[in-house]
Design goal:
Elements lengths: L7 H15 L9 E4 L3 H19 L3 E4 L6 E2 L10 H8 L6 H4 L9 E4 L14 E4 L6 H8 L13 E4 L6 H4 L3
Parallel strand pairs: 1-4, 1-5, 2-4, 5-6
Antiparallel strand pairs: 2-3
Length: 175
């Protein structure tokens, strides 16, 4: 793994999240989804971001991939939280947390995920989505955005951010 001083992309992501938390698009909304195509990248981002976000801003972070158990900075009396519980704690209004989980559970404000949640999930409590890498299939990008750009969103505005590769896309995917 790269050290923090050598990973400019990670440092920019830290800045974007910090700016979003300091200046929410919608009053009180600190929620951010970071999508990546790779489980290893999600794991790396979680390891690099979660401890700092908790220690400096008391922001709970979670990670959801299709290849490993979900992770969260939230402590659980049981072994851990499943994917649906993580998503409910991230988007408590759209997922009706009040009806299915104890009210004393804290919310998750930063969710790092792979495309395992890019379809069929209502996460419109969130107003800020970052594509940390660009999937080769443009439909995946639309599906990712569709998690927060939904009818019934409590947000007046949403922000969608893409990280683009430094080289041309054709060269990137070896066309």
């Amino acid at each position: 793994m790269l050290g923090l001083s050598r990973d400019a992309k990670l440092e920019k992501l830290r800045e974007i999240i910090a700016q979003k938390v300091r200046h929410p698009l919608n009053p009180g909304n600190r929620k951010v989804i970071v999508f990546t195509a790779f489980a290893d990248t999600a794991q790396y981002l979680y390891e690099q971001l979660a401890p700092q976000l908790w220690s400096t801003q008391q922001i709970h972070t979670a990670m959801v991939t299709g290849s490993s158990s979900p992770k969260s900075t939230l402590k659980s009396a049981k072994r851990g939280y499943d994917i649906q519980e993580i998503l409910t704690l991230f988007s408590p209004i759209s997922k009706t947390k009040a009806a299915i989980l104890p009210q004393e559970l804290s919310e998750i404000d930063v969710l790092i995920a792979t495309d395992c949640i890019s379809e069929g999930q209502n996460l419109q409590d969130c107003d800020y989505l970052i594509n940390y890498d660009i999937h080769w299939n443009p439909v995946r990008i639309i599906q990712r955005f569709g998690r927060i750009d939904r009818i019934g969103s409590p947000n007046e505005s949403i922000q969608l951010v893409n990280y683009w590769p430094d080289i041309s896309l054709d060269e990137y995917i070896n066309l």
